[in-house]
Task: structure prediction
Amino acid sequence: MSLPRLLDPLAPPRGFVATNLSLPRPEKLKVAIIGSGNIGTDLMMKIRRSASLECSLFIGRNPDSLGLVRAREMGVPVSSAGIQAIIDRPDLCNLVFDATSAAEHAKHHPILKALGLQVIDMTPSRVGAMAVPAINLEQLAAHQNVNMVSCGGQASTPLAYAIAQTHAEVEYYEVVSSISSLSAGPATRANLDEYIDTTETALRKFTGCANTKTILILNPAQPPIHMQTTVSAKVATADLDRLRPVVDRMVATIQRYVPGYQMIVPPVFEHNRIVMMVRVTGLGDFLPSYAGNLDIINCAAIATAEHFALCRTKKEPL
Result:
């Protein structure tokens, strides 16, 4: 497997350029959201705050769902017709966020592809190109369908990638994410197997290591805990002096789109393992701040969509 590598692990982050005022302001990209649950509703709230995205259609199946009710109150166009709403009016959007389930996205993908719509898949379906903005943002606009992996994948893969950049021989990666059980809704629980498979696939893809393991813990503690993710890598020897600045740069890059991403245990080496831990606090747009697991994947998706909007602006003639 060919492992993507940074030309210089200590170089300034690339890709997150929308805040550079010398560049053209991206025209607002019209986006639709399929799925009116927690993920979809939080995405809608974040999009309303974005300078480059506009939610032109919010889609569910139950017209009385909390998400659709909230959208109507905010003046966002809504539909309870599911994917049929986009089939009937594909001109209403340029991009679709699919916040349903892995099984549903497998059905939606060929329809959206035939309609010529770009897609950001919020489910662990593994249909599209894997998207981890801190690693491969600049390559994503070329794909019709991109997949946001999983919450644990967004939290852990950049750190595992940093280890891979600084250590040639890694025998094994393990990722353990602990989240509040209250933040794991029906779709999350229905897709646990897909979550594990997709997160492990992302770890293999971005590190080049074939031996990976993912664990997800649903913690019922009260008050609810914040998301915490531990990344460990089995190595014969560790070069922490080289690793730590690369990790610091990666964390700073992630914090540009996930402000609540915090390193709480910097890289240490013990028992032939490099270990580090992060905590994610949500922005509290629609979901409680302890639901950092949902917030991180949504923030990553918004960063990806805003990059698509910028790329679209650059391609348009002046």
User: Anything to note?
Assistant: Confidence is low (pLDDT under 50) at residues 1-23.
